[in-house]
Every structure is written in C-alpha cells, then in structure tokens.
Design goal:
Number of strands of chain A: 0
CATH topology of the largest domain in chain B: Dipeptide-binding Protein, domain 3
CATH class of the largest domain in chain B: Alpha Beta
Largest interface: A-B, 49 and 56 residues
CATH superfamily of the largest domain in chain B: Dipeptide-binding Protein, Domain 3
Number of domains of chain B: 2
Largest sheet of chain B: 6 strands, mixed
Number of domains of chain A: 1
Structural class of chain B: alpha+beta
Radius of gyration of chain B: 27 Å
Oligomer: heterodimer
Strand content of chain A: under 5%
Order of helices and strands of chain A: HHHHHHHHHHH
C-alpha cells in the first residue's frame, strides 16, 4: 500500500503545473523574452547594430523604401534605416518594464482599496465601489489617451512629476488597470470576512490590521498571482496601443507598438518592419496569457471543471 | 489526489488548439507577407531607372477634341469659391478656370500672360503709377450676365481688405496702394482705396506709395478677378461674406448654380464640385481652349491607394489635391505605359530646418553653421521618397528661378557642401571647434525639437536628431500634429523650441520676394501666427529686403534678391534641404495638361478627352 504523504500548497501547485505542457512552454518563452530583454545590449553588440543608429545607405536610393532581412540586418531595416532586429530586442525591454512596473502598481492599489472596501463595508465600501464603477464606466482608451496626451508634452504633468515617455505610460496604465483587480479583491474579501477563522480571530480580540494582514491577505495570494499574470499581457498590449497612437514611448526609444504604427503605411513594401515586432508582441502576450491560465488551473483546479 | 489530472485535461487541450490556431495564423501571415515581398523584389531590377527619368511636361494641347466630361478626385475641399479669399492650391485649380484675374498662365507654363488685361502693365518712370487696360466683351455668368468693367476689379481688390472677406495676402502685396489699409478692416466694412482709379470702363490706374515689384507680380493673384459690386454687395454685408456661395464666373467654366446664383447645386462641400460651361463666355476674348463640357470633382478620396487605382482603372481621371501613395508611385514608374500619365511638377519653395536664433545654442552663427554642415540631406529626402520627391536644396530660391539673373547677385550658392549631400561631420566639428567646443563636440544643455507625429515628417525629425547626436547634441523631441507644431510651437516665439525640423514655405507667385521676405524678414516676427520660424532679425538683411522690395527693374531686382538668398543661406538660421515635386496622375482617356505654376494641378481649361 502506498504511503499517503502530506503535501504543502506549493508542492501541490508544482505537481499540477508541471503536468501542463503548454503552461511550461509558455513559462519557457517568458523566461526567454526576459533574458533577451536583459541581455539586449550584449546581443546587439555581437550580432547587430545600435538601436538608434541610422543607415540611410540601406534604404532604396530611388524611393527611400526600407530593405529586407539580410545577414547584415537580420530583420531588415525600417523607414529611416534603423536595424529592426535591435529595435525588436530593445522593444522587449520597454514592454517588460512597463508590464512589470505598471502591473505592480495596479495590483498594489487594487489590493489595498479592494481589501479596505470589502473588509469595512458600509460607507467605505460604497465610496470605493462607486468610484470603481465610475472608473469602469469611463471609456478606458479615451481616458488613457487623454492622460498620456496631457503628460507627453514639454515637461510632463503634475509639475514635472510625471515625465513624458515611459513614466507617463506607466502612470496611465496603472490608473486605468487597477480597477479590475480592485473589484475581484473586494469580492473575495467580502466572502472571506464571513469565514469562521476570521470570526475566531475577531472573537479572540485581534486588531483589524492583524486580521487583514495575517488572516485575509494570505488567502488572497492565489487570486493576486493569477490576476497579475493575466494583467501583464493586457498591459503590454496597452503600452503598444498607446505607442501605436503616438502618445506612448517617445522616439527614438524603440517600442513594439510604435514600430507597428510606423510599419503600417509601408506594409506592402516592407513586411519585415511590421511582421517582426508584431510577432514579438503576439508571442509574448500569448505566452503570458497561457502561463496565467496554467497558474490558475494549478492553483485552483475547481475552476477548470 | 489523482482526480485532478482527469478534470484538468480539457483546459490545456483547449489552449493547445488555440495556440496551434494562432501559430498557424501567424505562419500564414508571415508566408503571405513574404510572398508579397517576393513579388515586389522581382521588380527591383527595373526600379533603379525610375529616379531622374520621369515623363517631361507635355506639349500644349492646341488641337484637342471638343466635348466630354472628366472626373477629378479630391481628398479635401476648396477653402472658398470666392476669388477674394482663395489662397490654396486647390482653390486656384478651380478659380483659374472659372475666374479671369488680370493676369494668368497657359497650361504647362510658368510664364505670366495677360488674362482679363489686354497687355502687360505699363509702369511710370518713378515706378509709382501702374496702368492696366482690360478686355471688352467679357461677360459674367448668369444671373449677372452684364459686361465686366474696370470698376469691378477695383471693387474686388477693395473688398479683399475687409475683415469679412479676409484675403490672406492683400496686406502683403496690395498695401502699397495709396490709401490702402495696412491691416484688414473690421468686420463687415467697405474699404475704399483712392489709389485705384478707373478713368473709363476698360482702364485701371494704380497709384502706389513707393515702387513695388511684388505689387506688379501680385496682379496675377485671384484677388484681381472682377466681382460685380451690385450683385455681391448683399453677400459682402454678412459678418462673414457669403459671396463664395453665390459666386459668378468670368472664365470658360462656372460652378453650376440656380436662377438666383446660389452654387449649392454645383458645390456640396465635402462631397462634390460640379463645373459646367459658362454660357456667357466668349472664346474670342480668351486664350483658353476649354475643350471639356463638364468637370466633376469627387471629394472624400482619403485613401491614396484607392484613389490611384481608380485613376489607373479610368473610373476617375486625375488626382486633384493629394498625391498617390509612394508604393503606388513606385509601381507606376515601373510600368512603361502608366508612367506616361504621371508627372512630377516642382513646387516652388523649399522645406527647411529652422534653428531658433533667439536663444542658446543657436544664437551663435558658428553653431548653426555646424548644423548646416552635419545634416544628411540625402537621408532626409529619402524619408519623403528619395529623388522622386524633389531636388536637394542648398539655398532658398528653387531651380525654377534659375537663369533669371539671380546668380549674378550671388544667389544659387551652396555654402555648406558635402559629399553626396550626406553631411560633413568633420566640417561641422571644425565649426564647433571655432565656436570654442573642445574636440568639436557640442557640450551644453539639451536642445528641444518639435516635430510632426506622423511620417514622413516624424522620420525626417528622426534623421535630424540622429545627425545632431553625431556632433554631441542631446536632442529632446516632442512630436505633435502638424497643425499643432505650427500653431502652438514654431509659430509662437514664446514657445518656440530650438529646432523646428518640419517647416517650409511656398511662393505666392513667381517672385523671389514671396519666397524670402515673409519667412526671413525681422518685421514678420509676431507674437502668434508668426511665419519667421528661425526668428531671424538681422538688420542688414531686413534693410536689404526693404530696398529690394522697391525695385521694379527685372535685372536689378534679380541681383538684389539673389544677394539676399545668399545672405540668408549663410546665416544658417534655416537649413533648406529639399525643393519638392508634386506627383499628378492622369487616366489614359484624357490628354494631360497641368498648371505647372500651381504644383502641377490638372488644368481643366486645356485638358481634352482622347
């Protein structure tokens, strides 16, 4: 007879996760993209050209159209003769930076406000929830374009606190995206606070902060992890969308969204300028999404049923 | 413990299917894109021939077939049908076939010839009196019908100064008339200019406060087209004149109108313009053949690719205001038959990079000259399509002024030459060394640049920024809409950045003053809507311009303005980089004829059906 061994939640998670081949592969891709982003300067030094260096000689001298992939320029050049390969690599840096920082802040704000609203209920909940409703009712993209446009000129907005470029994009995405996680956390806390272990803590005279951080927060770790992983790809796409619309990352800094925007009008003469950043965006977002799905399944098998 | 593996399976399997689908889509996409590119690159071998080898301007169509109709595609609309307001290439395209200003042009020619006038103007010895005789037998279109008199030209010029007509150039070129207002009069106002006399029905005598070559040149502008006062008066009494909606014609064509003269049947803004024959037009009084019966302008052609395909498929006959897309141009130039219907006409004027001369670091001549050396004009032109876009500019008077005597004064020089026009970094560093920067690399605060946020302007800005980085500048670029670039930054001295890389200036008519005076004269620096983008205010240049404006002798004028061209170029306050061409494509069912003086717009008074 097999011995029954007790396993911790982490062990359980790992046991389930490693059987999910798609999630594992996605995890591999995410690690790969992260490595590429971190090592971009060295990779570029070895096999490519600086991301902002222009090589007008590599444009068609009669029409100014870009030339395609070659051994010299692995992914071809863009409309001003920059190396698309290096720009895709550097674009990964921007995408991941934005995704991680903006996700961290969205989650932080969402969790704090969600917990307060769910735990205290009453007036506090009404205020936070209605604020959430208002935020959710806003046409998100328009709001984001507004904020980004207001902050992307001159010395930024809020007295120079929010500088144009990366900081603006991060602030914009945070403001727009914290609502989803806030709502979910509030719902979770609302049900958790009625659980016996919370009642027990209350009965034993625990302070609110103790209950919130010691009793409730540990139970929120699973949804926080799952939704963070799922928010990351949407944040990457959001950054791309803002840059595509011209209110995101400032040139000459490379960003996938900005590259796709510039590539669209020359698509019939320069497919590589469109295809490579597009593929990078697609693969990265897909990997994060599938990874998030996998983590959710592994943490909470009931969902999958 | 093992049950989860059973229940867990469906989700990943679903995801595998999704993943496969996405990957398959991506692969197909890349494959198709690759195939398309393959088709493209097979043509590459012939594309090298395209550059300088474009179809020359066609001969004048003197023996065309009468009758028929043509369709011209427009992305935008005319600003106004009112000749007193018209100040834009598309306005001219319509105005110069429906109206008869004192002077005009034949198709395919930049030479000014008498239109409503009978001959070139006679100028008195002191240059202050200009006399013009007008033709008799020219009649207005219905419902006015009467003959044109010299008083109609006087009224037309006077109303241009009224704020409710708001002509854009009256105060620049016609303010030298004795008693003319120096600024537009308040709305609505009737301006009377005693300096315009009409001793009889066919004579106009202009009395000027000083000799002015630009005034004589400006007689070709649509402001001099006659307007019947008794008919136009009620419309000109409105807060904003409504004469444009009731315009009557003197040219071979008119905008289709109803019995009261309202043109809404012939002009539906944003949708169409419909030109029909002016039945009161007498061919004997005009040099235009006017072969066509009707001309339809179809508006809303906002997609240049679709527009080009329509013309090639003969469902339309020409592009009226927007160029075909570069990729279409490329394929047309590779097709020997289609190529014959495509014309690249030089646009008089240049694009330049303006350097703010009022604040560091570009208040220093040597630093500006370093920029003039380092800019890679060839790469800049490639951002707009390379050689088909135009000629690389090295000064301000474009090649259409060549051979008119400007060279003698010192014009047409290239003070900042470089190999292949791709910039001379060594020379630039030399300038910076002279300016006191060790090893020729600029050291100092970040410089700001405000550029377009869409290609090709945004790409040009990228090239400029990269070139400046080569000599040590740290460039901060703010990219905005093209209009915002002008209205909020470059045209507002208070907010002007160090660099405006996307500005340019076009001539009003063939006169060097219209290219150099407004954008570089210190007096045109205004708190808002300023056209002197580098804010160049050099007393020597200002004085030279004031003196040159008074010259009327052709040779003396060319000498003086040629010298100013050189002086302005040497300040490097503005670095010119391209004299552009505008591409106009015709369908194969028409005989192409162009207003070469007006960016090569189709000249419908000369076009005929094959």
């Amino acid at each position: 007879m097999e011995e029954i061994v007790g396993r911790g939640p982490l062990q359980l998670f790992w046991a389930r996760f490693r059987e999910d081949k798609v999630a594992l592969a996605s995890f591999g891709i995410v690690v790969f993209v992260a490595l590429v982003a971190i090592l971009a300067p060295w990779i570029v030094k070895l096999v490519a050209h600086p991301p902002n260096a222009q090589y007008p000689d590599l444009l068609d001298q009669n029409f100014g159209t870009p030339t395609g992939p070659s051994w010299n320029m692995l992914f071809g050049v863009d409309t001003v003769g920059e190396d698309v390969f290096s720009r895709v690599l550097y674009g990964a840096r921007v995408s991941l930076e934005v995704a991680l920082i903006a996700t961290f802040f969205s989650v932080l704000i969402g969790v704090v406000l969600g917990m307060i609203a769910g735990f205290y209920r009453g007036v506090v909940d009404t205020l936070v929830s209605r604020f959430l409703d208002v935020m959710l009712a806003f046409p998100v993209l328009l709001l984001a374009i507004g904020i980004a446009a207001a902050c992307s000129l001159g010395n930024g907005c809020l007295g120079g606190l929010v500088q144009p470029g990366l900081p603006t994009v991060i602030v914009t995405i945070t403001i727009v995206n914290w609502t989803y996680i806030g709502r979910i956390i509030r719902g979770q806390v609302l049900s958790l606070r009625e659980k016996e272990f919370v009642e027990a803590a209350k009965a034993s005279g625990a302070k609110d902060s103790t209950i919130l951080f010691r009793e409730i927060l540990p139970n929120l770790v699973a949804p926080i992890i799952v939704y963070s992983t799922l928010i990351i790809p949407s944040n990457i796409l959001f950054e791309a969308a803002l840059s595509y619309l011209g209110v995101g990352i400032n040139p000459p800094q490379a960003s996938w969204g900005e590259m796709i925007a510039e590539a669209t009008p020359v698509f019939n003469t320069a497919w590589w300028f469109f295809a490579f950043p597009g593929a990078a965006l697609l693969i990265t977002c897909l990997a994060f999404n599938l990874l998030g799905d996998g983590i959710r399944d592994a943490l909470d098998p009931r969902e999958a049923q | 413990m093992h049950q989860h593996s059973k229940t867990r399976l469906p989700a990943p399997r679903r995801r595998i299917v999704t993943l496969l689908l996405v990957v398959a889509t991506a692969v197909t996409f890349v494959a198709v894109a690759g195939l398309l590119a393959g088709c493209g690159s097979s043509k590459k071998t012939t594309s090298t021939a395209a550059g300088g080898n474009v179809t020359p301007v066609p001969p004048l169509n003197t023996n065309g077939k009468k009758g028929g109709s043509m369709t011209i595609l427009l992305a935008g609309d005319v600003d106004s049908m009112d000749p007193g307001y018209a100040y834009y290439a598309l306005d001219y395209e319509v105005v110069y076939v429906t109206q008869r200003p004192l002077y005009g042009y034949k198709a395919n020619s930049n030479t000014v010839i008498p239109d409503l006038a009978t001959a070139m103007p006679t100028v008195s010895k002191d240059g202050k009196t200009v006399t013009v005789h007008i033709r008799s037998g020219v009649h207005y279109s219905p419902p006015v019908n009467r003959e044109v008199t010299s008083a109609d030209v006087k009224y037309a010029i006077e109303r241009g100064f009224a704020g409710n007509v708001a002509n854009g150039y009256a105060t620049s070129y016609f303010a030298v008339l004795q008693g003319a207002p120096k600024a537009l009069a308040s709305t609505p106002a009737k301006v009377s200019i005693p300096g315009i006399e009409t001793p009889d029905k066919t004579t106009l005598v202009f009395h000027l406060t000083q000799p002015s070559g630009a005034f004589i040149g400006a007689l070709v502008m649509p402001l001099t087209a006659p307007i019947p006062e008794e008919y136009a008066k009620p419309f000109d009494a409105a807060a904003s004149s409504t004469y444009g909606q009731h315009v009557v014609a003197t040219g071979p064509y008119m905008v289709a109108n109803d019995a009261s003269g309202n043109v809404k049947v012939g002009w539906n803004p944003g949708t169409f313009i419909h030109l029909v024959r002016n039945k009161n037009w007498n061919a004997k009084t005009d040099f235009r053949p006017a072969y066509l019966d009707t001309i339809n302008y179809k508006e809303g052609a906002s997609d240049p690719t679709v527009m080009t395909r329509q013309i090639l498929a003969k469902s339309a006959d020409a592009n009226g205001d927007a160029p075909p897309s570069p990729s279409e141009l490329r394929s047309i130039l590779n097709n020997p038959t289609q190529k014959k219907q495509l014309f690249f006409i030089p646009v008089s004027g240049s694009r330049y990079v303006a350097l703010n001369t009022t604040k560091p670091p570009f208040d220093k001549l040597l630093v500006r000259q370093a920029v003039a050396y380092v800019l890679d004009r060839r790469a800049m032109r490639l951002t707009r399509g390379g050689p088909i876009d135009g000629t690389i500019a090295t000064h301000f008077l474009d090649p259409s002024f060549a051979g008119l005597g400007f060279e003698a004064g010192g014009g047409f020089t290239n003070p900042f030459p470089s190999k292949n026009d791709s910039g001379d970094v060594a020379k630039a560093k030399e300038m910076l060394k002279k300016a006191g920067f060790a090893n020729g690399m600029f050291k100092g605060a970040q410089v700001t640049m405000v550029s377009d946020n869409t290609p090709p302007g945004s790409n040009t800005a990228k090239v400029v920024a990269a070139d400046l980085r080569k000599i040590g500048f740290n460039v901060k670029n703010i990219s905005v809409l093209h209009q915002t670039m002008y209205s909020k930054f470059c045209s507002v001295p208070k907010n002007a950045p160090n660099i405006c890389p996307n500005v340019g200036w076009l001539q009003d008519f063939k006169d060097a003053q219209t290219i150099l005076d407004v954008p570089f004269n210190g007096k045109s620096i205004a708190p808002a809507n300023s056209s002197n983008w580098p804010q160049l205010n050099d007393p020597k240049i200002n004085a030279a311009m004031e003196a040159a404006a008074k010259l009327t002798d052709v040779k003396a004028r060319a000498d003086a303005w040629g010298k100013i061209d050189k002086e302005v170029t040497l300040t490097a306050a503005a670095v010119p980089w391209v004299w552009e061409n505008f591409p106009t494509l015709f369908s194969s069912r028409v005989v192409p004829q162009l207003q070469t003086w007006n960016e090569g717009a189709p000249d419908v008074a000369w076009i005929s059906i094959k």
